[in-house]
């Protein structure tokens, strides 16, 4: 049982250093200056990391045929190449790289995240088969601390120089995951913990440690934010987690005990269906657009955080990134806390309804951004961070509830394909509006409310539409579950 818990701790550490794409806003403005690129091109670089997740299914296949420690190392080496070459370029160790070479390296780096996430997900599922929802949520919540962790290190190493900060971010992105994967490799394996249900005390301890860690991150982030409203100083974001169907199928087929029946009741699976049938269902397309106008929209906002802060004359980009990271952590953790302390059998709200409840404050946050005060920017960023994290976490069990666990790998892969699609569409449209504002102001960079004002109105309106769709999906899900139970 000790190895069982150690494997979960290992996944938490891996997740905490695996959100390398989430710190992009902290150095994106400097990268834009060094590469002399437009806002549209910069947005495409932010979207390139999401595009790498379209190939995340390869990691799922690899995990089904190779040892998990090897899959970890492959993922970390992909990140070493993707981020490492960019670091060498900024450090003048590589003579020249074209924009499209940087773009492809970013795609490769984005794909590397999927390999590590896949291993973490498989370990949580296989080593905690009767509590996999809680184990997975606990593990994945730590990815929300990645940006906070990386930003704190950079603040110590390169506190003021924008160019140096960009170099250190890329160096850490390339090296830290490799070190973490080498250290965690011995624990990246299946552990037979038996069928014991005496895990309550262990999970309680994990929750206490996790909550304390999150509170520390939030308090220190708020502390740095508070200092921004004193005399100002001028200083300077799904993976697609793919698990091969055979892995999930073996778990499902192996759990025939009464405890397994309890898990099935908790998940509330409507039915087990494959991808071909899923895409023909109205529920899938409702769910697709809910996620597109919810989590994906939140990720696009966080990807553009650097330019949004700069256009508003806010110098605290790093503190904003830390703040969004800390609140995203609690957002990801929230579903597992509810799962643990409030069994689903005692709640009448479906997963779709829960997503709607989370998206409602997110709508208000986008409209709050129309207020140009820095307090509104920080408050909105915190709200969008926690809501995006919660939706991302809830979506794993939503896919299972609507379409079953047997084909989860393929089904969820299809769903989250809207992340790169939305990243390009929403981000590029925001960049076009930014360029229009820049032309109107006659400045090199767009400064003022006109840069993103229309964008916030559009994003807020789309989020409202997504929230309404969640309750349509909730009603249809309840109807389907009632019909399924009668059968």
Q: In one word, what is the shape?
A: globular
Describe the main β-sheet briefly.
Answer: none
The average pLDDT is 79
Extract low-pLDDT stretches: 230-267
Q: Report helical residue fraction.
A: over 70%
What gap, in angstroms, lies between the N and C termini? 40 Å
Counted beta strands: 0
With helices defined by DSSP (H or I, 4 residues minimum), what is the helix count?
A: 21
H-E string? HHHHHHHHHHHHHHHHHHHHH
Rg over CA atoms, rounded to whole Å, is 22 Å
What structural class is derived from the secondary structure elements? mainly alpha
Classify the beta-strand content into a percent band. under 5%
Question: Would you give an account of this structure?
Answer:
- Belongs to the major facilitator superfamily. Phosphate:H(+) symporter (TC 2.A.1.9) family.
- It comes from Sesamum angolense.
- This protein is 75% helix and 0% strand.
- With 487 residues, it is mainly α.
- The chain is globular.
- Mean pLDDT is 79; it is low at 230-267.
Write a concise synopsis of the structure shown.
The protein has 487 residues and is an all-alpha fold. The protein is built from 21 helices and no strands.
Tags for this entry?
globular; 487 residues; mainly alpha; 21 helices; 75% helix
Write the SSE topology:
Elements: H1 2-16, H2 24-35, H3 39-51, H4 57-65, H5 68-90, H6 99-127, H7 132-141, H8 146-157, H9 162-184, H10 200-228, H11 245-254, H12 258-267, H13 275-278, H14 282-303, H15 305-311, H16 317-341, H17 351-368, H18 374-403, H19 408-415, H20 418-441, H21 453-486
Helix pairs in contact: 1-6, 1-7, 1-9, 2-9, 2-15, 3-6, 3-20, 4-6, 5-6, 5-9, 6-7, 7-16, 8-9, 8-16, 10-16, 14-17, 14-18, 14-20, 14-21, 16-18, 17-18, 17-21, 18-19
């Amino acid at each position: 049982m000790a190895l069982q818990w150690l494997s979960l701790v290992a996944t938490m550490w891996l997740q905490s250093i695996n959100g390398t794409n989430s710190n992009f806003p902290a150095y994106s403005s400097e990268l834009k200056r060094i590469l002399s690129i437009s806002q549209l091109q910069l947005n495409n670089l932010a979207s390139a990391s999401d595009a790498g997740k379209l190939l995340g299914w390869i990691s799922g296949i690899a995990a089904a045929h190779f040892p998990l420690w090897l899959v970890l190392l492959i993922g970390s080496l992909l990140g070493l190449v993707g981020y490492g070459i960019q670091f060498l370029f900024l450090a003048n160790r590589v003579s020249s790289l074209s924009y499209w070479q940087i773009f492809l390296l970013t795609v490769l780096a984005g794909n590397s995240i999927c390999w590590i996430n896949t291993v973490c997900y498989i370990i949580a599922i296989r080593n905690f088969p009767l509590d996999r929802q809680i184990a997975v949520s606990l593990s994945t919540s730590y990815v929300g601390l990645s940006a906070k962790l990386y930003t704190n290190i950079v603040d110590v190493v390169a506190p003021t120089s924008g160019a140096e900060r960009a170099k250190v971010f890329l160096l850490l992105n390339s090296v830290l995951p490799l070190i973490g994967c080498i250290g965690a490799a011995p624990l990246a394996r299946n552990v037979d913990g038996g069928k014991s249900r005496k895990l309550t005390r262990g999970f309680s301890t994990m929750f206490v440690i996790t909550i304390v860690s999150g509170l520390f991150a939030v308090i220190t982030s708020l502390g740095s934010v508070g200092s921004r409203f004193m005399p100002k100083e001028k200083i300077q974001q799904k993976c697609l987690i793919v698990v091969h169907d055979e892995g999930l199928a073996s778990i499902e087929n192996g759990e025939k005990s009464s405890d397994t029946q309890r898990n099935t009741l908790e998940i509330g699976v409507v039915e087990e269906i494959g991808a071909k049938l899923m895409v023909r269902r109205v529920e899938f397309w409702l769910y697709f657009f809910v996620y597109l106008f919810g989590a994906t929209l939140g990720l696009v906002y966080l990807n553009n955080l650097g330019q949004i802060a700069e256009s508003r004359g806010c110098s605290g980009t790093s503190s904003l990134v830390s703040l969004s990271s800390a609140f995203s952590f609690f957002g990801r953790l929230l579903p597992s806390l509810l799962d643990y302390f409030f069994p689903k059998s005692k709640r009448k709200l479906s997963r779709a309804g829960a997503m709607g409840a989370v998206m409602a404050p997110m709508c208000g946050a986008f409209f709050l951004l129309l207020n140009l005060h820095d307090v509104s920017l920080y408050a909105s960023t915190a709200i969008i961070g926690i809501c995006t994290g919660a939706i991302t976490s809830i979506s794993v069990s939503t896919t299972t509830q609507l379409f079953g666990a047997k084909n989860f790998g393929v089904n969820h892969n299809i769903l989250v394909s809207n992340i790169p699609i939305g990243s390009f569409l929403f981000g590029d449209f925001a960049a076009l509006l930014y360029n229009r504002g820049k032309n109107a102001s006659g400045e090199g960079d767009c400064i003022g409310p006109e840069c993103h004002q229309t964008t916030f109105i559009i994003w807020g309106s789309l989020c409202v539409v997504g929230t309404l769709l969640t309750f349509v999906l909730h009603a249809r899900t309840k109807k389907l579950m009632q019909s399924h139970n009668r059968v």
